[in-house]
TrEMBL record:
InterPro entries referenced in this protein's UniProt entry, alphabetically: Aldolase_TIM, Radical_SAM_PqqE_MftC-like, rSAM, rSAM_paired_HxsC, rSAM_sf
Biological process, per Gene Ontology: heme biosynthetic process
Highest taxon above the source species: Bacteria
Annotated Radical SAM core domain residues: 91-252
The entry's keywords: Iron, Iron-sulfur, Metal-binding, S-adenosyl-L-methionine
Xref: SUPFAM superfamilies: Radical SAM enzymes
Native source species: Butyrivibrio proteoclasticus
Official protein name in the record: His-Xaa-Ser system radical SAM maturase HxsC
GO molecular function, one term: iron-sulfur cluster binding
């Protein structure tokens, strides 16, 4: 998120947002620090400090809506925001117990990165409005914080914070029946777990995750989670040079072992961090990648498994598969090439990741 409040002068870091004076006073009585907006002025309550907001800031705050939760860091940047219709993300940690060769985060961050302090997580959840459309819980690997994640899920569930959830996890932790059981006890309704599967055999998956034994753990985790019948699972396949030739085999593996997964997502790489460092090992031109993806899609679709394609611009996908392409890249990360200005499908195309654009920009083919 790139939004800032340039003139923010508050002493706190988490606020409830309000556009209505009686509501704002109600939040203060319920022990919430509150950022009350009237015209172009923000008033912090109960601090009783005011500052001006720009038209752009006002537009953003208005989009979050009454009762939203804002986390503002010491640089006046909105580090996270939770609104009823917002694309809400609860970020847990940079750290991960895998170190995927095409991860957009760099290895040092994976190893030594920041974990959001538990007291901040708890406050964010307390401040969140109830009944939000959706929350994505992500990292790093969220289960790096172990049982605390169960506590977070319980708080979200008890507080009726959202109607639907997506948890992004490498799934390894669910190889433990005990973890799976505890998870099933606290998980809110309408809960989807997105788990990456890199290949149909340990050699391929573990070479990509750079974590020996991870294929066995992840595949057991998927099986155990499906057996709980408490959550849905989407399998995420990040397509690289290392696994592209095995996608058909991987699709057959999924059909055979997990016919009741919610969906399979084929994903283009975000060429930052590890992916950038290892680009000679992982990069595959998208038009070539799609030649391997399409037969794998056919196998899944013929077996009644839903499929979507993430992060692929339309001009790298054969037209009959366009309806599977999702506008999956977060708004502030989307790039288009100069040539895209001439493309008549630009409005329908989800564009490229910033970072991946330098690998793709010269090969886009505007649709005329
Ligand atoms: S030319 Fe640009 S806008 Fe058109 S499909 Fe390709 S990437 Fe998308």
């Amino acid at each position: 998120m790139n939004n800032m409040l340039q003139e923010f002068n508050g002493a706190n870091y988490i606020y409830k947002l309000s556009f209505d004076r009686p509501m704002a006073e109600g939040y203060v009585s319920a022990d919430f620090n509150t950022l009350f907006i009237s015209d172009m002025t923000a008033t912090l309550l109960p601090e009783n400090k005011s500052f001006n907001v720009s038209k752009e800031e006002l537009k953003y705050l208005t989009s979050l809506g009454e009762g939203a939760c804002l986390e503002i860091n010491s640089n006046k940047k909105i580090a996270s925001a939770f609104g009823i219709l917002n694309d809400n993300t609860l970020y847990i940690t940079d750290k991960c117990n895998s170190n995927c060769i095409m991860c957009p985060m760099a290895e040092p961050a994976r190893r030594d990165g920041h974990t959001v302090p538990f007291e901040i997580q708890d406050e964010l959840i307390r401040y969140m409005p109830c009944g939000m459309e959706h929350i994505t819980i992500t990292g790093g690997e969220p289960f790096i914080i172990k049982e605390k994640l169960f506590d977070i899920l319980q708080q979200l569930k008890t507080g009726n914070k959202a109607h639907s959830y997506l948890l992004l996890s490498n799934g390894r932790v669910f190889a433990s029946h005990e973890y799976c059981h505890k998870f099933a006890e606290v998980v809110p309704e309408d809960f989807l777990v997105g788990i990456p599967l890199h290949g149909p055999i340990p050699d391929i998956h573990d070479a990509i995750s750079q974590a020996p034994g991870s294929f066995i753990q992840t595949t057991a985790g998927i099986k155990n989670l499906l057996a709980t019948k408490m959550v849905s699972i989407e399998i995420r396949i990040v397509v690289s040079k290392l696994n592209s030739k095995y996608l058909v085999q991987l699709a057959e593996y999924i059909v055979q072992n997990y016919p009741n997964v919610d969906s399979v997502k084929f994903m283009g790489m975000e060429m930052l961090g590890n992916a950038n460092v290892n680009s000679d090992k992982v990069w595959i031109p998208y038009e070539e990648a799609f030649k391997y993806i399409s037969p794998a899609i056919d196998i899944l679709v013929n077996n009644a498994i839903d499929v979507a394609i993430y992060n692929f611009p339309l001009c790298f996908v054969e037209r009959p598969y366009w309806n599977l392409c999702a506008n999956s890249i977060t708004a502030h990360k989307i790039k288009y090439a100069e040539a895209c200005a001439n493309c008549k499908e630009k409005n329908a195309c989800g564009g490229m990741f910033t970072g991946t654009d330098r690998f793709l920009a010269n090969s886009v083919k505007p649709i005329l």
